[in-house]
């Protein structure tokens, strides 16, 4: 079997109802994994087709990753339905807020941290505990960070968001070190500008963001899917604690 194959594996993607999370769910399914998604909104209509397009199993759970109760309840339901199987976890649920640093409030900042940092961290923790309990030989956690953890993204007014993504990227090697003894790998993906609802909300702040990328365009969600599938698969078996930046070269010039 190809080292890129995820056949027979079970994946969880948070924030999988649309945007990058939906693309990750589709990519993992295309490589053969069964995929469960957690989200606070109903999934995009195309989610329904994934199971039949790729002959795998999908499920959606309404879960707010920033609530311990909702996350733990949703995870227990997911595990009951999937016979306690989990090999891949992609905590992707995230939000952004655009305010000048001097105007950020505790409430706005708290919302960002609750979802982007705590939600991601405890999703990964639940997944890791279950991977250890079920003894998977293919445990892989792919944290969704951002190009915004590498650079001060132009005109975005998102200092708090950058901080949350920096937290994701710096917790990655620390968690990787602790989980290495269980054979579980932990890496992150840092997308650049991706065309999603999140970026639509601030596109007016960056009138010429295509020009920031070497290839002159912003990414579609499918453009960042491959890095996630690669990190989830045995093709990346020697990688852990690393970050892959998929940004059309924005951070490199
Ligand atoms: P999006 O807004 O299209 O999708 C985010 C998804 O997360 C939505 O389905 C939303 O309902 C879900 N979500 C939000 N709060 C949640 C919660 N409390 N519990 C469960 N689900 C919740 O955004 P996107 O652009 O697809 O972003 C996905 C991830 O990629 C985020 O972590 C984001 O920070 C990251 N990212 C996006 C870009 C980009 O340019 N779009 C760049 C770098 C990183």
From TrEMBL:
The source's domain of life comes to Eukaryota
Sorted keywords for this record are:
NADP, Oxidoreductase
GO MF terms held by the record: oxidoreductase activity, acting on the CH-OH group of donors, NAD or NADP as acceptor
One of its Pfam families is adh_short_C2
Q: Which InterPro entries match?
A: NAD(P)-bd_dom_sf, Sc_DH/Rdtase_CS, SDR_fam
Q: Which SUPFAM superfamilies match?
A: NAD(P)-binding Rossmann-fold domains (SSF51735)
The answer, when asked if NADP is one of the entry's keywords, is yes
- Family label: Belongs to the short-chain dehydrogenases/reductases (SDR) family.
**UniProt-listed PANTHER family:** 3-OXOACYL-[ACYL-CARRIER-PROTEIN] REDUCTASE FABG (PTHR42760:SF115), SHORT-CHAIN DEHYDROGENASES/REDUCTASES FAMILY MEMBER (PTHR42760)
- What's this protein's name? Lung carbonyl reductase
- Source species of the chain: Penicillium cataractarum
């Amino acid at each position: 079997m190809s080292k890129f194959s995820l056949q027979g594996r079970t994946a969880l993607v948070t924030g999988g109802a649309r945007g990058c999370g939906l693309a990750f769910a589709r990519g993992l399914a295309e490589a053969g994994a069964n995929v469960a998604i957690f989200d606070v909104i109903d999934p995009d209509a195309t989610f329904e087709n994934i199971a039949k397009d790729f002959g795998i199993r999908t499920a959606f759970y309404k879960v707010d990753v920033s609530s311990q109760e909702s996350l733990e309840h949703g995870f227990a339901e997911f595990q009951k339905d999937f016979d306690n199987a989990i090999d891949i976890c992609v905590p992707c649920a995230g939000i952004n807020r655009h305010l000048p640093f001097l105007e950020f409030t505790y409430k706005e900042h708290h919302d960002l941290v609750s979802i982007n940092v705590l939600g991601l961290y405890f999703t990964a923790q639940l997944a890791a505990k279950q991977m250890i309990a079920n003894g998977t030989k293919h445990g892989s956690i792919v944290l969704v960070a951002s190009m915004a953890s590498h650079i001060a993204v132009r005109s975005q007014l998102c200092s708090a968001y950058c901080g949350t993504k920096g937290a994701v990227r710096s917790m990655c090697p620390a968690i990787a070190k602790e989980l290495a003894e269980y054979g579980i790998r932990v890496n992150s993906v840092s997308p650049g500008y991706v065309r999603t609802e999140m970026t639509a909300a601030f596109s007016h702040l960056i009138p010429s963001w295509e020009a920031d990328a070497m290839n002159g365009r912003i990414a579609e969600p499918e453009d960042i899917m491959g890095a996630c599938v690669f990190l989830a698969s045995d093709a990346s078996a020697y990688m852990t604690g690393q970050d892959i930046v998929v940004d059309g070269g924005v951070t490199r010039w």
